C-alpha cells in the first residue's frame, strides 16, 4: 500500500530535499528568473550536497539561487544552453578559472533530451546542430534528406521546479512563461520536487487544465506567491 | 532589383524586414536587433509572434503595472500577451521550431556564407564563454530563415563570405539577408541582390568575395 497522496506536501524545503546525494544530477527549472525555484535552490545550498551536475537553461543570475550554489563550490558540471548573460559573473569566473565543466546544448535539444528521458526514448536523431562544433564526434546520418545527429536522453536524479498551484495529489498548473522547463523536467527525474504558491484541495483545479499530472510530482513545498515567482 | 539612394538606418532595416514578412505568418524574432522588427509589423499582416520560452501571441514590451516577472520574452525582458495568446512548455515550444511549424525566424549573424551557412552563436575566441540558446533550433527549423546584420564588420571586411570562419550555427539554412546597403536572397544557384540602398551593384560586387547576381 502506498502512502496517502497528501503526504507529498512537505513541511519545509529542507524536508523536501532530504536525501539528495553528492554527485547527483539535478534538473533546475526556469528561464532566467521566470520559473526559477529559488527557495528550493537556496534549500539545496543548506542541504549540503556537492559534486553536483546541474541541468538548467542558464547558469545563474546575480549572486542568488543557482549563482549562489555555484559560488559555494557545489557544482562540478553545468549542462545548459545559455550560460553567458549580463549578470552571470559567478559562472563566468568559475568557468574561466577551470573550476566548472560546461556541456553546452542547443536549447531545443536540451528540452527534447529531457522529454526523451521522461518518455522512455532510448535516443533520437535531430538536424539541430548538425555540422556544427557542438555535435563534433556525435553519430551523424542523412535521414529524410537532411544531416541529423544522434542525441541521448538527459535524466535527472532530482528535478527542482516552480509551479503556480498544486492540488493535494500533485497536479500542477503554472503561470505564463514561468512554465518553461517545469513540465518536461518533472517527467525526467526519479524524484521531482516542486515549489508552489499554494496547495488546493483535490478537485479544485480543472482537470482539463492540469499541465503536469500528479504522477510526475513527488514532493511539494508551499513557498508563497512571491517565492514561486522567483522574487526575493 | 530595387535601387534606393540612401542607406538603411537601424529603423529602416527593421522596417524592411517587417514589410517582407508574409501575411498570417507565425514568426520568431531573435534576441537583439531582430526584436526591434516587432514595432514595424502592420496589424493588417496578422503576424503571430512566437517566443521560445513558451508563448504564441506575444505582445509589446510591458511597462509599469503591466510588468509581470512570469511573463518575459527570450531576452528575459517583460512583455505582454495579446488576445489569442497561448502558453506551452519548452519541449512543445521547440517542437514548433524543429518540426517545421514556424513560418519565419529573424536572426542576427556574425557571418553568412554564399551557401547559406550561418555563424551567429560564438566568436570562437579562446576566452569567450560560448552560449547557443535556441539559435541552432531556429536555423534548421523555421521555413524561412532571415538574417539581419551589417554587411561589413568594423574593419570593413564583408560578413557575407565564401566560407564562414566563425563556428557554424547551421548548414545551408539562410534564405534572406537584410543589411544596411543591400538585401539578398540566398538560393542554391546564386546569391541574388534584391535591393540596394546607397551602394551601387558594381561596388557591392567589388567589395564582396561572393559572386552575386542582380535579382
Automatic annotation (TrEMBL), chain B:
Keyword Disulfide bond: no
SUPFAM superfamilies linked: NagB/RpiA/CoA transferase-like
Keyword field: Transferase
Signal sequence range: none
GO molecular function terms noted in the UniProt entry: CoA-transferase activity
Record keyword Transferase present: yes
Coiled-coil stretches noted in the UniProt entry, renumbered to this chain: none
Family, as annotated: Belongs to the 3-oxoacid CoA-transferase subunit B family.
NCBIfam families: pcaJ_scoB_fam (TIGR02428)
Name of this protein: 3-oxoacid CoA-transferase subunit B
Organism: Metallococcus carri
Biological classification of the source: Bacteria, Bacillati, Actinomycetota, Actinomycetes, Micrococcales
